[in-house]
Amino acid sequence: MTAPTAVVTGASGYLGSQVCRTLDAQGWHVVWLARSSPPAARHYCRYDLAGPISGEVTEVLRSADLLVHTAYDLTLTDAAEIWRVNVQGMRRLLAAASDAEVRRTIVLSSMSAYAGTSQLYGRAKLDIEAMCVAAGGCAVRPGLVYGDQPGGMAAALRRLTKLPVVPIIAGGAGIYTVCDVDLMAAILDLATTEIFPVGTISVAHPTRVSLLEARSVLRRGGRPSLPLCADPLVVGLRRIACCRACPPATSVPRRLTARPGANRSRRHGWRTGQRSRRAPAGPSAPHQADGDQRAR
Fold it and tell me: What is the Cβ-side half-sphere exposure of residue 39, based on CA atoms within 13 angstroms?
């Protein structure tokens, strides 16, 4: 049986590289798209979000069963440039994927994308989400992603642990978090589930973590001590896959916590938008009956 093909943009980045390794470990043929070849890439294709879609990328998309878009240029600060590179770059990629008849598209968004936000980053992500959903894709909004070697915002937060003072975010309301293992489990399930949810999905523990608490955990380095889920993260999505009117319910990802020994689990629903559609699935993720077997 021929392995399904996944094309991942931003493959040299923190989350993009994790998505590539996760799918590769499950038997997918993974093509890493980035501006330069990542050392771990077995199949690489050069891709620049700011430029036109090349013939090589077009050819790769024609063989793809799954497109996972994680690329985003965070170095830009001018609104016009942010929209030219990130938003219009996404528009070009979606058009190419549609022409190539890619079966399903997953876009990594952010919890900064919410109605009424004044942040340029959040507004750009909202526009990207809208395009993704209109094209029949699924936009995933993760909380602050942390793990053994956190990147992105978690890495920046870890650098803040060396400061003598703690900055306050959003009036001290705290931040939502998700373990990288749980986020990758959710991405894998979206890639393989029989009924593909079209819309937006938030993947995070429902309880906010104060910046002070996050700081006390991250400053120790390594993977934080975490309570484990009582049920696998992704089984709920399959259980209700045939119920189009209901949002999928799953176990809560583990919560970043500074309290060792905690072993409580809580439940929440994945907030989803609009609709679901049936699409051919890739290789099934291993069924887990007792607990999160992906936890390390």
Answer: 0
